[in-house]
Amino acid sequence: MDESELQAEMTKMTNKSQAYRLQDCINRLNKTRLKKKNELIHFLFRTSQLGQNNSYTNQTLDTLFKSQEISQINYSQTIPKKIIEESPINNDLMNIIQQITDKGNGTLSISEKDLIKDLIFSIQGIESQFISYDPINDQFQVKKDIAISSASRKLLNVMCECGWLFKKIQTFTQSNYNSLVLQALQNSIKEELNEYYRLIAYFENLLAESTLTLRKMYMWLKQPMHHLVQINLVLSQNLTNVQLGTTSSLVISILCRYSKHGCPQTSQLFSRILHQTTIPIVRFINQWIFDGSLNDQAQEFFIERNDSNKIQIRDSGELWKNEFKVNQDKIPYMISLNDSYKIFDTGRVINWLRKQCKFTQFNQNYDLITIDLLGTEQFSLFVDQVNKEYNKQLIQLIKPNFKITLNAIKRFLLLGQGEFIHTLMELLQTELNKPAQQCYRHTLLSILESAFKHISQEVRLNVKLLEPSQNDTGWEIFCLDYTIDEPLNTIFNQKIMLSYYRIFNFLWRIKRVEFTLTQCWKMHQKFMVIPNQFQTIKKAIQLSYQMMNEMQHFIKNFYSYLMLEAIESSWKKFIDECDKIQDLDGLIKIHELFISDILDRSFLNTKGESTQKLLFKLFDYIFRFKSCQELLLSYAKDQISQTDNQQLQLKNLLNKQQNISRQNQNKNQDIIKSLLELRKQYRDQMFDLLEKLKKEDRLKFLHFKLDFNEYYLGIQESKIFNQDLERFIEKCLPKVNEVQIQPNRVPNSKQIVQPQQQQQRIFNTNIDIQNDLRQFKEGLKQSDEQRRQQLQFKNQFTKSPLEKSPLIQIPPTMTEHEKRKNDEYLSSSDDD
């Protein structure tokens, strides 16, 4: 439309004020950058003529509005009859406006009121006449054949999203869950939906008053739609997480994160939901830390009953550790890991005191935990205070009995009361020497009770027989046991008691070795004085005595190391730490460290297996030594007794004496051979043990105690050990040819001519013991020939018939000078 034509039309307008307003709108429109100004001017001009008579025809419209798009409009289309009936005047102008704005199907065109009515149904997730649910796209949308503008259609589709969100949320709220947390979440969401229902009722009231429009409705739904989107987002994170599932911790953690949202409205929304959702968790915490009970049927609390360890929990000592556990995946976001373990420990203490100690006098001055306190700093301080209070009551309750039991175990299972252990060994010696299959518990128990007569206080000791192996005696299977009742069996559980049994067995074996050497010493005391004519026996006993002293030195020092370094030092450290303990877990931990330290220092752990094997071999050699010593002393006793008896029966033994003498010589040689072989084997093991101890810094003191004067080092370096057999044979064994039967000395008899000096025999220092003995036997044959030659001169010195026997040498009475010379010779030979 040209400006001239527009001015001509405006002059024809009868309403001047309307013309001025139209002119002002056109001026403002010209100042803008809109592209289709002519169409807008045409629209304004035609709307300004509403109320006037229709003086325009289609030809006039075509001349005024030359746009190609508008010229193609079919002016025969009409607006709905309902609008025509409401506005019967100016129907032609209304048709023109509809033709410009509406491009839909005129036969399906609806009013805004009908659209709003259907929209109210759709935002509740219900299909209506004009708005339906598309299952393919999973959304509510306006039907495509409805004649509405694209803006209205888009606006309606946006508001229909509320219906889709509402439907999803309603599906969750109508589901059945066993979880109390999810049920609380459902209730809190339903309360939030109540506000949504009120808004819908408000829409219906406005619709009845015909004051509700689509834009008003959109503005009202903007905030509820945002809340529905956020709630649906939270639910989708819970329900789609297959790995974690719909657990309480996941729900609460997500709600906690959204309660700290940057949007204030979103933060307030989820704070309200979180407040209601955490009610079951707060109830669980209060029941646990104040009553020690766990009523969690849905298993959503982060403290669980450990059903997987039912077999192990049969031991009441394992109840403390294995009955309950903390599931870290279920700890809520608002509770820290440290606080969760304090909550777990507090309830476990109360539960243990109720079940094991039958204790009910708890401090009930604390208030219950509230929802507002959860997740705050005051909550952490409160949990810490309650935990310390209940642990203090527990420690005060069990500490006196614990110290009494621990001292008793140290006295008897760790052999701290030495006089009792020595008495018990003497009483049990007869029974324990029997094979393991012939040892009976009731017999040993009666002997054990008799050993308690000298102990004033009551001792709860018992006898425990271990599983026997082949060729075991009672010494190997005997073990002392201490009866422990509740609640101390939590600390002294089966695992700890097995460690005590291992330590007792090891100490008992060492004590047995010491007891064996003591018996050997007692047997030696009976043979301290031996006549000088039994030089071979005397030298053999001296060798045995030397070996016994060497073994006693090892056993006493090693046992002293175990009792002082391994047990007493660990005990002192353990007792000092016990006074600082504030909870039962700490007490159990330091007690386990105490046992572990003793096992480590006593070579009873995996690291000390090689050292333990060396020690057991040394113990076996000591037991073998006792057997050899018994043979030696038995042989010596027989020889000495035969000397006294043969003086009376000399006549009857003259013909048999030579054979008997040879048998005795062979038996003595076998005993000496066994002792030497045993000493060699024993020293070889000692060399290995000392070498192993020398490599470890913490065992250097034990190495020093076992070889403080470097005795074994000197033997090893100078190879004295390889020469021991040669020196013994050269200096001692040739005297075996002397007379073994010595009758009473005859007074005033002359001295027998001394035998000729024996030929010196040189031995190879590198040959083994068997070759030495074979050469030794050959030397004996030569010495026998020399002895026969010497006995030929005996008759000229004899005065009685008893002295005429060629088999007997009767030495004359020696003067004081000769006795002194003989004693000096014997002392020098003893030193060698």
Automatic annotation (TrEMBL):
Pfam families, per the entry = GCP_C_terminal, GCP_N_terminal
GO BP terms in the entry: cytoplasmic microtubule organization; meiotic cell cycle; microtubule nucleation; mitotic cell cycle; spindle assembly
- Cite the InterPro entries for this sequence: GCP (IPR007259), GCP_C (IPR040457), GCP_N (IPR041470)
Q: Where is the Gamma tubulin complex component protein N-terminal domain?
A: 116-398
Keywords associated with the record: Cytoplasm, Cytoskeleton, Microtubule
Residue span of region Disordered: 794-832
Presence of the UniProt keyword Magnesium in the record:
no
Enumerate composition-biased segments (Basic and acidic residues). Answer: 815-824
Coarse class of the protein's main subcellular location: cytoplasm
Q: Keyword Lipid biosynthesis: yes or no?
A: no
GO cellular component terms attached to this protein's record: gamma-tubulin complex; microtubule; spindle pole
Gamma tubulin complex component C-terminal domain residues are: 406-712
One GO MF annotation is: gamma-tubulin binding
**Subcellular localization:** Cytoplasm, Cytoskeleton
Q: Which PANTHER family match?
A: GAMMA TUBULIN COMPLEX PROTEIN, GAMMA-TUBULIN COMPLEX COMPONENT 3
Q: What protein am I looking at?
A: Gamma-tubulin complex component
Organism name: Paramecium pentaurelia
